[in-house]
Amino acid sequence: MLQGAQLLAAEVSTDVPSPIGLAPLVILLPLVGAAVLLLAGRRSDRWGHWLGLAASVGAFVVGVVLLVGLLGQDAEARAYDQHLFDWIPAGTLDVSAGLRVDPLSVTFVLLVTFVGSLIHLYSVAYMEHDDDRRRFFAYLNLFVAAMLVLVLADSYLLLFVGWEGVGLASYLLIGFWYRERKNAVAAKKAFIMNRVGDIGLIVALMLMLANFGGVDFATVHAQAPAASTGITTAIGLMLLLAACGKSAQVPLQAWLGDAMAGPTPVSALIHAATMVTAGVYLVVRSAPVFEAAPDAQLVVVIVGAVTLVFGAIVGSAKDDIKKALAASTMSQIGYMILAAGLGPIGYAFAIFHLVTHGFFKAGLFLGAGSVMHGMDDQVDMRRFGGLSRYMKVTFVTFGLGWLAILGVPPFSGFWSKDKIIEAAFVPVDGQEWRAWVFGTVALVGAGITAYYMSRLFFMTFTGRRRWNDGSGSLDGTGPQDGPVRHPHESPALMTAPMVVLAVGSVALGGLLAWGDTFVTWLEPVTGHAEHGEPVLPAWLLIVLTLVLVLAGIALAWRQYTVQAVPVVAPHGNALTRAARRDLYQDDVNENLVMLPGQVVTRTLVHADREVVDGAWTGLAGTLGLLGDRWRRAQTGYVRSYAATMLGGLIVIVVVALALAS
Amino acid sequence: MELTHYVVLSCILFAIGATTVLLRRNAIIVFMGVELMLNAANLAFVTFARMHGDPHGQVIAFFVMTVAAAEVVVGLAIIVAIFRTRRTASVDDANLLKN
């Protein structure tokens, strides 16, 4: 039962043993890499990408050392706050920069550096023909460094530094090919929508300072349980707003689809595996705050549930392979946020799903990049089809990632997603309606996930060829219009990371779920949760999930493999058309926020010009006019001055005489 | 000797001088107007000195004459200089500082 669940207030030690003391190095390596690559300029063009890769791999090695260091300690003692330097010593506000090394942060360090290193390797080949490959690696290193600051920070303020850092790196990388207007606009959109979320984090920081007198995790988490519900709810909702911005959750989800304008490795690393999951990290890290604010937790669950359905619906209609994957990312993060809102029974599974998702979604994106590489940057799935014969490695690795995201046992996704569905069916505070509503949403979401991912998979790899192979044959096996494509397998540098990620997609989930290894590992942070009883038996949930998944696959198979896929998208029903336009998210944003905002700013500009400026320029004009009039009195003729003097003299004499008499 | 006659004469001379200064454009004539005003004042000084039996007024009349002589020297020099450069003695044309 959840009531029985309690958060262990893990003792956070400030006495750091030697291997843990290496933690700053993990941030420093990619940071130095980024600095060198950016400062050295064109000179480092020839070897820059290898330096970037080395920095990332080095960070991963240090991450492994940290893991070994933590494993060498007792489970209860696996949390360290390493003081780096006094940052803002200002009287009662005393913030120091420090690193929190515990199972949660080390999990993230390993995920970010491992997947990051693989994607660095992949990018060496993927970006080979790009003149700006060095700049690309500099930004990737910058991102890795910022993400590591985010997850290793021991205070919300330092976390905020990393939070902004990854936002900057994301902006720079989405707009990497900034010469195309579309990409620059997408980068700006992502940056601005993230900024809306950042305001939430800033307000949360202020609330913490005002009410708890500090922003470090230790202070906030110690005082949150005793604080009034109003304050914790406010902080919780503000943190959720921040999480929504960074993790592309409703209502701040609109930027993620456009963010696919960046190079595909960026989409894989930042907009699938790591940065967009920062919101989940924030919620799980702030567990004590949310524990003290049940209302905020309920909102977290609602946001997660809405987003998971939203993303799934959008993903079912997109024809752009990257945008379909982006919608899927949004949906899967919806699962994580939902789990994170469930309390201690969900935290570990949220992070578990985050890790497995990081592997299979990065693998899927790299596969999509490989397909695009072979198809001359074509992203329209209606122009793919039958590619399995041409790209065998991509086909197999993508297929394994596909099975993993579907949650087919024994692939990774099964172990994490199924647990989230089960946890969603556990009543919270004895409220059965919540179990039924959110459990059903999670369950149905799994079915839709199966449908849209199968759709994507079948449209790309199976069925008939829908691209022009240039053979000119008129036997009716494929279209002869459009640009000629010669699909081919990608080089080994690209397929190797895909193979590694595919292995992770297959085995990681089962490995970490074996004997609850992962959940036990995270327990010092997330707290020990009593096993809750779902409203339906667990075996029935697994069966239901699998039935829905199979139904989704079957439906997609019938529509996109058995039946011919039209090259031009059919008109579709109202829901399809809405989903193609992201359920009108941009129209909603524009009409509800952008246009009123523009009206307000225009009105203010007008008022400023007419009223405020009008008053001052009017005054200046009047004075100028007066001066002009006065100037005319200055004729330059001596006699007129003399006459004035005389006149004045006469006036003085007359007055003097009048006063004397 | 009626005091009033002298004062009235002094006033008339002063008025003529002032009018000359205000209305004429030739610098020489304007100078003459100034001299007239100064001498009208001298006349008033001398008159009152005689009436009161006090020599102070007469002394001041001498001062005025001295200053007037000095002023004429400087003034005429300026007028000559202006005439040489601008070929005119009109006060209205000495307007280089205007605008």
UniProtKB/TrEMBL annotation, chain A:
One Pfam match: Proton_antipo_N
Gene Ontology terms describing biological process: ATP synthesis coupled electron transport; electron transport coupled proton transport
Domain NADH-Ubiquinone oxidoreductase (complex I) chain 5 N-terminal: 87-137
Keyword set, alphabetical order: Membrane, Transmembrane, Transmembrane helix
Membrane topology reported for the UniProt record: Multi-pass membrane protein
Domain NADH:quinone oxidoreductase/Mrp antiporter transmembrane: 153-425
Tree of life domain: Bacteria
Family annotation (InterPro entries): NADHpl_OxRdtase_5_subgr, ND/Mrp_TM, NU5C-like, Proton_antipo_N
Compartments where found: Endomembrane system; Membrane
GO cellular component terms attached to this protein's record: endomembrane system; membrane
TM region positions: 20-39, 51-71, 104-124, 136-153, 159-178, 199-220, 226-245, 266-284, 296-317, 324-345, 351-372, 393-415, 435-458, 492-515, 535-557, 641-660
A Gene Ontology molecular function term of the record: NADH dehydrogenase (ubiquinone) activity
Protein name per UniProt: NADH dehydrogenase subunit L
TrEMBL record, chain B:
Gene Ontology MF term list: NADH dehydrogenase (quinone) (non-electrogenic) activity; quinone binding
EC number per UniProt: 7.1.1.-
Enzyme class label: translocase
InterPro entries listed in its UniProt record: NADH_UbQ_OxRdtase_chain4L/K, NUOK/Mnh_C1-like
Keyword Translocase recorded: yes
Substrates-to-products reaction catalysed: a quinone + NADH + 5 H(+)(in) = a quinol + NAD(+) + 4 H(+)(out)
One Pfam family matching this protein: Oxidored_q2
Cellular component terms (Gene Ontology): NADH dehydrogenase complex; plasma membrane
Positions of transmembrane segments: 6-23, 28-48, 60-83
Biological processes annotated in GO: ATP synthesis coupled electron transport
Domain of life: Bacteria
Signal peptide: none
Chief localization: membrane
Keyword entries, A-Z: Cell membrane, Membrane, NAD, Quinone, Translocase, Transmembrane, Transmembrane helix, Transport
Membrane topology per record: Multi-pass membrane protein
Localization per Swiss-Prot or TrEMBL: Cell membrane; Membrane
Keyword Ribosomal protein attributed: no
Family statement drawn from the similarity comment of this UniProt entry: Belongs to the complex I subunit 4L family.
Subunit structure: NDH-1 is composed of 14 different subunits. Subunits NuoA, H, J, K, L, M, N constitute the membrane sector of the complex.
Protein function: NDH-1 shuttles electrons from NADH, via FMN and iron-sulfur (Fe-S) centers, to quinones in the respiratory chain. The immediate electron acceptor for the enzyme in this species is believed to be a menaquinone. Couples the redox reaction to proton translocation (for every two electrons transferred, four hydrogen ions are translocated across the cytoplasmic membrane), and thus conserves the redox energy in a proton gradient.
HAMAP family recorded: NDH1_NuoK (MF_01456)
Protein name (database record): NADH-quinone oxidoreductase subunit K
Taxonomic source organism: Sediminihabitans luteus
